[in-house]
Write a structure and sequence with these properties.
mainly beta; SH3 type barrels; 2 domains; two-stranded antiparallel ribbon; elongated
Amino acid sequence: MSLNSLHVKKGDTVIVLSGKDKGQKGKVIQALPKKDKVIVEDVNKVKRHTKPSQKAPQGGILTKEAPLHVSKVMLICPACSKPTRIGKKEVNGKMVRVCKKCGEVIDQTK
């Protein structure tokens, strides 16, 4: 991706396009633009073996989400509820993301 910009943001609902979690839907809980990766809720779960520490006095096996490459996910439009590519459009002097299928603005203006 160019200039560390991603087509998805934190809070977007996405669908996984490839890999072991293909077809699963989830919400983006963290975007990592410098690495071109996103962390999706309840998708790409991995197990980590941890030693007892101050944070986790019990230690043991923890399950958490691992990052996915951003090219493996596609945004689901909140208006038409379909996986879609995005376009960019200027509205009131601001660039916003637009659904390619229905034409609705994806970014909520505050």
